[in-house]
Design a protein that fits this description.
By secondary structure, the protein is of the alpha+beta class. It folds into 2 domains: about 80 residues, Winged helix-like DNA-binding domain superfamily/Winged helix DNA-binding domain (Arc Repressor Mutant, subunit A), CATH 1.10.10; about 45 residues, Ferric-uptake regulator, C-terminal dimerisarion domain (Dna Ligase, domain 1, 2-Layer Sandwich), CATH 3.30.1490. The strands form 2 sheets. It has a 3-stranded mixed sheet with strand order 4-3-5, with no helix packed on it. α2 crosses α4 and α3 crosses α4. The longest helix has 13 residues.
Length: about 130
C-alpha cells in the first residue's frame, strides 16, 4: 500500500478513506473483481456506498492508479497498475477468466516491439476460446 500512497502523492490524488478502501480491496484481489464485487468486499465491516465505489474507481482510473478491463461478459474489472503484465484467456462458454503467464510470450512481444523501434513497457493480450470438455 505504501507504493500506492506514494503514487497518489506524485499524481496529486487525495487519498480519502474511501479511495484507500477501494485500493486495498483491489490490491488484495487474486482475481479480476468487477465493481459490484469490489463494493461487496469493501462494505464488509465498513460503511461505504455503491456510488462512492463508482466514484473512487473512476477517480483512481483517471489518475492511472488502476486499470479497467472489459471482458466478454461486459463487466468492467479492475487491477492495480504496475503489477506484472499478463494475458487473459476467456472461456466464452463459462465466462471464466484465466491468467496466462510466460516469459516466452513477453520475449516475443518485446522482440516485435524492438523490430518496430520501440521498447515494450507493458502489454495486454486477450485470448478467447472454449474448453475442450
Amino acid at each position: 500500500m505504501k507504493r500506492l500512497e506514494d503514487l497518489c502523492r506524485e499524481r496529486g490524488v487525495r487519498l480519502t478513506d474511501q479511495r484507500r478502501i477501494v485500493l486495498e480491496v483491489i490490491e488484495a484481489a487474486t482475481d479480476h473483481p468487477c465493481t459490484f464485487e469490489i463494493y461487496r468486499r469493501a462494505s464488509v465491516n465498513r460503511k461505504i456506498g455503491m456510488a462512492t465505489v463508482y466514484r473512487a474507481l473512476s477517480d483512481l482510473t483517471t489518475a492511472g492508479l488502476i486499470t479497467r478491463h472489459i471482458f466478454t461478459d461486459g463487466k468492467a474489472r479492475y487491477k492495480i497498475v504496475g503489477r506484472d503484465s499478463h494475458s487473459h484467456l476467456i472461456d466464452v462458454v463459462s465466462g471464466a477468466i484465466l491468467e496466462v503467464t510466460g516469459e516466452g510470450l513477453r520475449a516475443l512481444l518485446e522482440e516485435q516491439a524492438r523490430k518496430l523501434g520501440y521498447r515494450l513497457v507493458d502489454f495486454r493480450l486477450r485470448m478467447v476460446g472454449t474448453s475442450p470438455s
